[in-house]
Amino acid sequence: MQDPDKRSAYIHMAETKPSLLLQGATPRLLDEWQDAPVLWDAVRFQVDNRQASGQFILTGSAVPSDDEIHHSGAGRIARMRMRTMSLYESGESSGTVSLSSLFEGNHEVERMSDISIEQIAHLICRGGWPASVGKSDQASLLTAHSYVDAIINKDTHRVDGVGKNPDRVNMLLRSLSRNITTLATAQTIISDVAANEISMTDKTYSSYINALKRIFVIEDLPAWQPSLRSKTAIRTSDKRHFTDPSIATSVLRIKPDILLKDFEYFGFLFEALCTRDIRVYTDANDGKVYHYRDKNGLEADMIIQLADGRWAPIEVKMGSRQIEEAATNLLKLQSKVNIEKMGPPSFLMVLTAGEFAYRRNDGVLVVPLGCLKD
């Protein structure tokens, strides 16, 4: 729908007789279908008429507003979120430790990763964009930069037709980048933007955040609310996340060599990288990813919960010195969860930037991100 030579004709056809665009060999792919939202309802109607599966694939870089679609597509159209590539998909992870195998009870994980800290810094800045994979180090960083520039100057306006100040978009993205993988509140973000002499009301903040979500830039991590043995207040705020950690480094213009000099921020971004990959692998296992934190400060960076109820907590730690603390936290969380209602965790994992995967004496698994796959 964005072919410059045919766009006008396609849009006119969609407005007058959308069924014409659905003719041809199947499966028929309609790219950027949201530019003509009537195609959604036309596809649903044709699916009913043909009574066959796998007829159409609708892909898009944004979500149209709900009032432009008259039917949910339930029972006819299945939704699938496409993410940037995981390290296994891009060829960096060896894939010797399988998430699905761990859920099946195979906890013999003795393996090795050959990804260095320097490489991880580069992979964070490069991101999982297909156009970046396989290019030289310098060229591979340009894809994320160009994507961020498009977000700031065009995409947030395009998604809803409402003009947005590029300076505000930029400062909002910078604040979100500085607060990545934290529970920073909306007021914290607004105050941070205002500190840079860019005004932002609550209404403006909501409008900009919604636009960034609709073009798949922001994907916050929701809080897990399990059944616990005793009453403990659980934090319900989402964790701040982008769909890919390279968005943060591109917004802040941070290169790998700079990241290696700031290990505190490196740690936040490494958690973001792990979250991206775990989301990809969890999708393949029909599950969802959450985070956990209670009023006492006990937390787990990620909780995987599969559709059948199986679950597993994950702590992310870059250095080996932090593994002991992470394992202790995971065991504490396990003791707090009501096993009678939730069932025992399928495994406890510390996800690291290290070299070796192994199982500790207490049963906690230590796994480098460079070994993991779905």
Explain how this protein is built.
- The relative contact order is 0.13.
- It is globular and about 65 Å long.
- It contains 14 helices and 11 strands.
- Helices cover 39% and strands 13% of the residues.
- How would a textbook summarize the main sheet? 7 strands, mixed
Distance between termini? Answer: 33 Å
Order of adjacent strands in the largest pleated sheet: 4-9-10-8-7-6-5
Q: How large, in whole angstroms, is the Cα Rg? A: 22 Å
Q: What is the helix tally?
A: 14
- Globally, the shape reads globular
Label the structural class: alpha/beta
Arithmetic mean pLDDT: 92
Total strand count, please? 11
Low-confidence stretches: none
Which oligomeric form is depicted? Answer: single chain
Write the layout of secondary structure elements.
Layout: H1 7-16, E1 28-31, H2 38-50, E2 56-59, E3 97-98, H3 99-103, E4 111-112, H4 117-126, H5 137-140, H6 142-158, H7 166-178, H8 186-194, H9 202-214, H10 246-251, H11 256-259, H12 263-284, E5 287-293, E6 299-306, E7 311-317, H13 323-336, H14 339-342, E8 349-352, E9 356-359, E10 365-368, E11 372-373
Parallel strand pairs: 1-2, 3-11, 7-8, 8-10
Antiparallel strand pairs: 4-9, 5-6, 6-7, 9-10
Short description:
The protein is α/β, with parallel strands linked by helices and 374 residues long.
Key descriptive features of the protein:
two-stranded parallel sheet, 2 domains, 374 residues, 14 helices, alpha/beta
